[in-house]
Specification:
Blueprint: E1 3-7, H1 11-21, E2 26-30, H2 38-42, E3 51-52, H3 56-61, E4 63-65, H4 71-76, H5 79-88, E5 93-95, E6 100-103, H6 108-121, E7 125-127, E8 132-138, E9 141-147, E10 152-154, E11 157-160, H7 175-182, E12 187-193, E13 197-199, E14 211-221, E15 226-236, E16 240-242, H8 244-257, E17 262-267, H9 274-287, H10 306-313, H11 326-337, E18 339-346, E19 354-359, E20 377-379, E21 387-388, H12 393-409
Parallel strand pairs: 1-2, 1-11, 2-7, 11-20
Antiparallel strand pairs: 3-6, 4-21, 5-6, 8-9, 9-10, 12-19, 13-16, 13-18, 14-15, 14-17, 15-16, 17-18
Helix pairs in contact: 1-6, 1-12, 9-11
């Protein structure tokens, strides 16, 4: 009987093992942790945003790196197929704002349990506390793996689903990159992604804990056109800024700036044009004309933000509203729609949701996930040089590439996982 080895018990690895074992193929999954799905357990703040219910075109638009490579995998096992799979595996799902799909229970443990049940039902041999250290190749073909401690295990195919470098506390140490590189694969430079920004300006620290909704951000290399803009929610922290809007912006930061500085521009009133905002200020100023400037902004901003806006405006906070000149008012309106911060870099992998970079996709067959360099070696999930924005899109990559690798490693390129 054909034997398949899966390295890694995360989202992609578990799906690959379930897919490969579905028609009776002998599958052994090796996981160095004490339990399966350690990173999956903490995703979506423990709720596990397992995919997105939008149409496939929208899913492709949310893939940041190498979307064309994922065409076959996505259409072979799309978001609807993922939702059906988990429903039939005993994990009912629900769709929330922005198309985000979660288990009805709001517990990521139920997603992991569904995957484990399907693997055990299909007789996958799950080996916990077992670390794979090397790949065994003979005449350009994979023949097995070497375990920590020196033991060798033979296999007809090996699926590498070892993850990246994000959340190292879950066991993500980049070992898969090392093993693949040792056998000739190119590793595209890796960076933390979906990660908060460090900000240079000291006033930013004074806003720690302040959350802003319905704001717009623009990210640009210094003195250049913005390469990212987005609308949503963000958070000020003790080191800079975070929140969904910032995490998405970080996906583009490394590609455009590497490790250089960037300008992060914040529009606090995106629903208003500059002209509408000026009219709003005129109304507010008229209603508060005898108040001090610093005491007249409660209708515009959260209280914590007011001292910073006064400072950035350059207007003396003690000044009476009726004394403010037209030029000062127009400059203040400009600051409201162009609150600028300097990004000095991102936080590290410990705070990153995913890794950007990885196995060069030019060396992987997109229809099968098999290595073009080594027969019988397959890749799935975060180890590949593919990544997406927040909203369930990165887990969709894991499910689709895991499924594709599993059925193709098993020799069934048109497998069917709907018969649970």
């Amino acid at each position: 009987m054909k034997k398949i080895i899966v390295i890694g018990g995360g989202a992609a690895g578990m799906m690959a093992a379930a897919a490969a074992a579905e028609k009776g193929i002998k599958v052994t999954l090796y996981e160095k942790n004490e339990k399966l799905g350690k990173k999956l357990f903490i995703t979506g703040k423990g709720r596990c945003n397992l995919t997105n219910a939008c149409d496939m075109e929208e899913i492709f638009r949310n893939v940041v790196t190498n979307p064309k490579f994922l065409y076959s995998a996505f259409y072979g096992f799309d978001n609807q197929a993922v939702m059906n799979w988990f429903e039939k595996a005993g994990c009912p799902v629900k769709t929330e704002r922005g198309g985000r799909v979660f288990p009805v229970s709001d517990h990521s443990s139920d997603v992991i349990a569904a995957l484990e049940r399907q693997m055990r039902k299909r007789k996958v041999d799950i080996r916990l506390h077992t670390e794979v250290e090397s790949l065994t190749i003979r005449e350009g073909r994979i023949t097995g793996v070497g375990l920590k401690g020196g033991k060798k295990e033979e296999g007809d195919a090996v699926i590498m689903a070892t993850g990246g470098l994000a959340y190292p506390s879950t066991g993500s140490d980049g070992d898969g990159y090392r093993m693949a590189a040792e056998k000739g694969h190119t590793i595209k430079e890796t960076f933390p992604s979906l990660v908060p920004f460090n900000i240079q300006e000291k006033w930013c620290r004074s806003l720690q804990g302040l959350s802003l909704k319905n704001v717009k951000v623009f990210l640009a290399a210094k003195d250049k056109k913005p390469f990212y803009e987005g609308f949503g929610e963000m958070l000020f922290t003790h080191f800079g800024v975070s929140g969904p809007l910032i995490l998405s912006a970080s996906s583009y930061y490394r590609k455009k700036c590497k490790r250089g500085k960037a300008a992060l521009r914040l529009d606090l009133k995106p629903a208003l044009t500059p002209e509408q905002l000026d009219r709003r200020l005129l109304r507010d100023f008229e209603a508060n004309k005898n108040k001090q400037f610093k005491n007249s902004l409660g209708g515009l901003f959260p209280s914590k933000l007011i001292p910073v806006m006064v400072e950035l405006s350059g207007i003396d906070g003690e000044k009476k509203i009726h004394e403010i000149t037209k030029e000062e008012r127009l400059h203040f309106a400009y600051i409201i729609k162009n609150m600028e911060m300097t990004v000095t870099g991102t936080r590290d992998y410990a705070e990153a949701v995913i890794t950007q970079g990885g196995i060069c996709v030019k060396e992987v067959n997109p229809s099968t996930m098999e290595s073009k360099l080594i027969k019988g070696l397959y890749f799935a999930g975060e180890i590949l040089d593919t990544d997406a924005l927040t909203g369930g899109f990165n887990l969709q990559i894991a499910w689709s590439t895991g499924y594709q690798a599993g059925i193709c490693a098993a020799g069934k390129e048109n497998g069917d996982l709907n018969e649970l």
